[in-house]
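Write out this protein's structure.
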Amino acid sequence: MKKFLLSVLAMAVCSAMAFPWGSAGHAYIDSRLFNDYGPLMQANAVYGGMAPDIFDYVFSVSCKADISTATHTQFGAIWDSAWNRPGKALAYGFVSHNDLWGADFTAHHSGITYGSAEGYIITKARLLIQAAPLPPELPISSEQALELYHNFVETAVDVLIKRIDPAIGRKMTSAALLRTPLFPVVMARAYKYQFAPCFGSAAIAAAAMAAAEKEFRKSIILYGQSLCQDEGTAVQLLSEQTADLAEGFLGAPLPISKEEATALVVQLVQGAMQLCENDFAAELEATVVQVGNRMNAEGFVMAAESRDSKSESGN
């Protein structure tokens, strides 16, 4: 049993870092903030809202943590680098994600309706640890446990969002498919010189960002398609994806069956859903309002589209 749990914990920590947990929450927030714009503009804003996490899942880069910090805190660079309306819509979503006062702030630092001391997601993760604690003999720190459970809570909330927006999976998939092809150029303009020391040159940094974004885009399509299914199937698919990723990150076959690993992940995600189902919607709604107000206050504003221009918003 101990070997089983250790293996699954290693699997879960690795795969949680390697898959875009919490993307549906950002997609929901930006679809609401861009509700009055045309479908292509909304798609760009939704994709932009998920995009700061692009490098969170690239483990071959030694300065990955520094890059992730930059995309989550130095977000003005993206706004300044976008030059047309689709690019600005994508930049709007990118900025809204930020960890200083954006959507990530309410999830991970200071919740609005719940978890004001350390964020909605983190507070729920601590409750999940209490409800389904790890065996005390496992060699895992409290910080590692919190990171692990925090990812299960984010997955649970992503599935729960289907209850208030059944189309969230389709919106995520459409956003990844329809995002402006200029996004890699915008991202390179924003960060290539800052990231050049990490990669060796600005040109190599730009190429690395484009490659990472390409893989991230694929993962968002897969994640969105999973959320297009019924709730139970979505939980199962996301848990199976976690198990599928495990062997690649561990570099060896799992000493347990995929079915056993998937069953444990399903159990933890379902437990997190029970903890969040009664209050997640209120926190999301409050976050939409707070982030929208702060975006206006900070000057990240786009003029509303006319009725006639909505169908042409990708031009």
